Input
Amino acid sequence: MDERAKAYWKRNLTLVASLLTVWFITSYGFGILLVDQLNTIRIGGFQLGFWFAQQGSQYVFIILIFIYVFKMNKLDKEFQFDEE
Amino acid sequence: MGIQGWTFLIVGATFALYIGIAIYSRVASTSDFYIAGSRVHPVANGMATAADWMSAASFISMAGMVAFLGYDGSVYLMGWTGGYVLLALLLAPYLRKFGKFTVPDFVGDRYYSDTARVVAILCAIFISFTYVAGQMRGVGIVFSRFLDVPITQGVIIGMVIVFFYAVLGGMKGITYTQVAQYCVLIFAYLVPVIFVSLMMTGNPVPQLGFGGTVADGSGEYLLDRLNGLMTDLGFDKYTDGTKPKIDIFFITAALMVGTAGLPHVIIRFFTVPKVRDARISAGYALIFIVLLYSTAPAVAAFVKTNLITTVNEVPYNDAPEWFHNWEATGLLRFEDRNNDGIIQYHANPEINELRIDPDIMVLASPEIAQLPNWVVGLVAAGGLAAALSTAAGLLLVLATAIAHDLLKRTMMPAMKEKTELGIARITVFFTVLIAGYFGVNPPGFVAQTVAFAFGLAAASFFPAILMGIFFKRMNKEGAIAGMAAGIIFTASYIIYFTFINPEMNHAGHWWFGISPEGIGTVGMLINFAAALGVAKFTKKPPQHIQELVETIRIPRQMMKGETGK
Output
């Protein structure tokens, strides 16, 4: 593999790893492991942990995918790996 | 017009629409038949993926399950949406770049092995069959309740419709009917909920009303009211779970990873023109899915509150009309244990007199909230759209697995395209028949086998594809060993607890408290471990495979030699 492809792949892996960390923290962290602690915080009628489990995590998932799309398209251009 | 009149009208109109689309988009090549010629717009693909993915279970059963499980129902909400992040970031763009037709194509080519291909074909067939039987049953239920058609006839009508557009249009026909079906099902899901949310909380946005106050001037939050009602009846609080945390964790993971490994979802990303489109269409798909999935828990809380307040401690003879309608289907049962003529709903099975099948929560919600008749008809059409769209996607996977992967790629590579297309169409015909048979005579184990499907997808496809892309050193020996170990482990655990020893199927006997539903996660870990271990001690994959991996990692189509060795 040439240097350009190697550098591109490394940047891609860093991006994916950081997005998946957020993915893990919001769903498994806030929605499951820390749910009892977060449930002591209330926003309107929602207990925060319950909200993350049934609502919030889904919104975060969408945002993560769109950040990924935006960043990858930019990365493709930067490395001239984008499709014509 | 009555409920039936409206239902006939709306269901008839949507069916006419699907058939019209099928005729408009009929196809003549295998590429069109399997992957719609890779010309589907990303937004259209997003909608089609959403309809493909959201089955009768999502539309009809999920809110009901959440209503009965409370917080524990979150496993479905997170599990069936979070998988799309994995799909978008780890699988979809690379599979699109790989650019063939199916998942077994990828597994077989990447691991340069027909054994790996056949294992993948068998998994794809098993997973898809399990699923499709459930869809046909969903069609039957909707027909029998809303149109007074016997379940058998309902299933046959559904079969004819699906058969028509799947055979004629293949993936192209399915894609555009799925776009229409998505519109029908999301409209049908949201309209009644918006009404209910307005009535109960004064807020038209269910996601906000869910956390708002009850619209009776008391200023009490809806969820607090529901928690109060539940504890009064001896249940746990709605917002607290009863399942052990470790099980919630593993089930959520198995559903997420399973989602990302389901062949009928993955195949949708082969239908868009570019790698860039595959990424963004996963994002669109998730928006369209979350529209329903973020509404479902609100439906659950509304209907549950409504149900308890309108039925509990009400004399049987004064029970609302929908109560008696649904009693007729057997999905709602009242047994007057203390002979006082009053309905008692309670956590204690000794006192409880009401048995409610979770499936009716969505279907009956417009009636429970006394919405106009046309809304009831709309919900019926939505349920059918959800079931038919998923069934069609699955049938196509079955047809490609048999005609393309098994016959063309494994057994008869010399086969002409026209013959292959003919065989694919005949395969659709037979799979529709088999699926219909299971719809009429549902095997009692459908519910358990769905856990099975996710577990297998999680333990076989997801790790095999992931390592195929991200770990160049992974070779055929490792991949096959990993898939075999993952499948055998997951299958034995599920078969042991659900078929051989169902009486032992509770937390005390499970390994580390992980239920059969969540065991796919462990299966996946075993797959990774076995694959990495075996690959370490066997020889590297051949040069051309390593080059293949390098090309799928880069979106641009490189000219020969341009990667610059």
